[in-house]
């Protein structure tokens, strides 16, 4: 099964600007962002991307009370993806299903809440919740989905900073090719906005975005960009080997074409353009393609002054010449930085381009930073393309982890 073709057959998501692929895609094409003001404990009012899905659609009130926000998002997205896939899940062998969910961090929210709660009682730990440990273990988001779905195969969370969404799909692809599972639920989730620590940390780095209009706060490549908008969200996909998908007549969104993961080994926070360049080049080579064969590059750019420039250096090194049909866009300008869910949501938002031949733009660019100028950078309005057969999704993260994932149009 080493060279088995792996295809995407289902998709479920919740984003700050949509709770289904159709709604999300329409808002990406219409320039509708989803950022709002949110009061954060100890930090005060901040800009954030908040999801407004119905958590009780697939959970009881008790399950929500016992579980976590990341687990709830995982359950919602997994259930939506399964419904979208059309698979007969009730009859499926649950031992042969895997769940692989990328997450930037997990457990901070629950520990912060418990400390705050016992502070109201003189820090008496007898008031500490007995649900704290299962809430904070790293495998919680995937584990909660497993409990809800009854999946008994290999289920775990992948910690890969802000590259985690891509890694969820990459790992699922590998497990399917190894024959370890026959069906995979994979992607990324984030509950980041519910922890004051992440806001305080970025604030101490002067890395939080500010703007009078929340919807314009996340503005990658704009000359006046000033930081990250922290967001929550999730996107999970169902992946299958092609022959299995065809045997049940599944619709196919696209095919996993190639990928690469590497690390900078150079700094805790600052990205390394040379290593990002290498990551993208190796993903393209793994897919058996040339740079000119890539039609959409979805950038990771988070709207930080230096980070955006360094990624643009990497993109320019790969696609700067001889790639007239390569269009470059960004999704964080709509939804902020959904951390572990970022790569998965950004891929999801671009997948419909295989059908509508439209590249959604980067919005909120009032004045392009000359250091971020790239050929075919799509700004503020959608662009029609003569052909869209390949999407390359960049996702990079702290401690120097880089990932690039390529999905191509399915051709039987």
TrEMBL record:
Whether Cytoplasm counts among this entry's keywords is no
GO biological process terms held by the UniProt record: fatty acid biosynthetic process
Q: Where do the Ketosynthase family 3 (KS3) domain residues begin and end?
A: 3-409
Sorted UniProt keywords:
Transferase
Q: Quote the Pfam families the UniProt record gives.
A: ketoacyl-synt, Ketoacyl-synt_C
Q: From which domain of life does this come?
A: Bacteria
PANTHER family for this protein: 3-OXOACYL-[ACYL-CARRIER-PROTEIN] SYNTHASE, MITOCHONDRIAL, POLYKETIDE SYNTHASE-RELATED
Say yes or no: keyword Transferase present.
yes
Q: Its GO CC terms?
A: cytosol
Transmembrane segments annotated in the record for this chain? none
Q: Which family does it belong to?
A: Belongs to the thiolase-like superfamily. Beta-ketoacyl-ACP synthases family.
Q: CDD domains, alphabetically? A: KAS_I_II
UniProt GO molecular function = 3-oxoacyl-[acyl-carrier-protein] synthase activity
Q: Which organism is it from?
A: Cephaloticoccus primus
Would you tell me the protein name for this molecule?
Answer: Beta-ketoacyl synthase
